[in-house]
Each structure stands twice: as C-alpha cells, then as structure tokens.
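Example record

The entry below shows one chain as it appears in the dataset: sequence first, then structure tokens.
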Amino acid sequence: MAAAQLVVLGLVLLGVERGFGAESNISTSMLDVGSKTRLTCTLDSSDTAILGHRWMKGDKVLQEDSEADLTTQFEVDTLESPGQYSCTFLSKPTDRTASVNVKGPPKIKAVKKSEHATEGETVVLACKSESFPPVTQWVWYKIKGDEIEVFNNVSKNKLVVSSETKTELHIQNLVLEADPGVYACNGTNTEGTDQAVITLRVRNRLAALWPFLGIVAEVLVLVTIIFIYEKRRKPDQVLDDEDMGSAPLKSSGNMNDKDKNVRQRNAN
C-alpha cells in the first residue's frame, strides 16, 4: 500500500514538473536583415498573463516593453552582434528567460583607454569582452615601435589575471623610465581574435609638490617686493615728519613778535 502511494505521488510530481517545463518552453532564432541581425524569442504558451519583455546582453538592459505578446524581437548591428543575449518574458509569479548565443570573433574593449599613475605605485590595466564563444586565451604585451614585449605571470613586477570576459595587467612598483608606454590586450576564441590598446603615463613622485612649491615661490616674491617698497619709502616719511615738526616753531616766533609790538604800543 505504501509503495503504491509512493508511485502515485511520483507520477503526480512528474506531471507537475512536465507541465511547468512545457509552460517555460521558449524557442529562439536569428535572421540577418541587411546590416542588422534580428533575434527572436517565442513562448509556446503561458497560463499566466505576460506583462512585458526584456532583452539583455550580460548585465546590461538593451530593451524593455510592456506588451503581452508571446513573441519578442530585438535587432542589433551585425558587426556588433556576437555575444550572449537573454530574452525574458515578464510575468507573475515567475519570469521566464532564454539565452540567444550569437557566435562571432571577440570584440575586445579597454575599460579605460589611458591610465595615469605615479612612480612607485601599482596600476591595473583592464580589458573586457562580451563575445560568444567566450575568450579562451588572453595575451598582454607592450608595443615598442616595431617590437613587442609579451608579459606573463613570471614577468618582472607584472601580474596577469584573466577570466572568460575580462583580463587585468597589474604593474607593481612603477618605474618612471621603463613602464610608461602603449600596452595591448589580445583576446582569442574559436571564431577569431581582437585586441585593444591602453596608454600608460607615469608621473614623477615629486610632481604633486610642484604646485605647492609654485605657491611658496609666489609668496616669497610678493613678500620681497613689499619689503623693498617699504624700505625705499621710509626716507620720504622721515622728511615729512621733520617738516610737520618745524611748522609750529615758525608760528611761535610770529606770536612773540606780535607780543613785542603790543608791549611797545602800550608803553607809548
């Protein structure tokens, strides 16, 4: 009896799982239309209302709508199309998602096309790829005219850290004479290869002091000018003070003369 109940329960669970799987059956297709590649996702059926659709590439939302159709499409430039896309049918209680993989050679992009750092510091140069198939081999090198210097994990003061979608070149203890220049990251998958370049500029460790030293120099020049001006101005001030002091003496002499004249008149 117990064994029969277990068999019945197993059949019920299997039926539920199949029903849920059938509800989530999404077919995908790709079609080149001129310079565009049209991606299409079609949901066979749905027991719940479709609230909209969302297209994404990686973690970036490319398109979203609120239509209730069982089919959704997205067009992308053919040259930029390689990569892993996802189409999502928005509904409740759960969304349904399918992947659309567009094969092509990698499209390598530098996270930053130029980097600035100070000697003695550590700098990280980074490149990424969202292509499909994923990059299987990353190579970092420095371009020196017609020559290249390839780096690996045993290169002096340089460390390469890579995954399928991103690669980093860590340069430690930057040297002002040796490390500045143009670096390249190269990525390869089964469909081809591509690369991006990054320019690294390294500042002298004393470069941050130049603005401060400039301000100090300007203050010193200003103080010197004021000191010289004040020193040249002092003799004129002394003469002015002497003139001001002599004026009362002349006036007191005149007052004495007037007093004498008055006395003489009174005596007469």
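Notes for this example: The two ends are 166 Å apart (CA to CA). The chain is about 30% helix and 40% strand.
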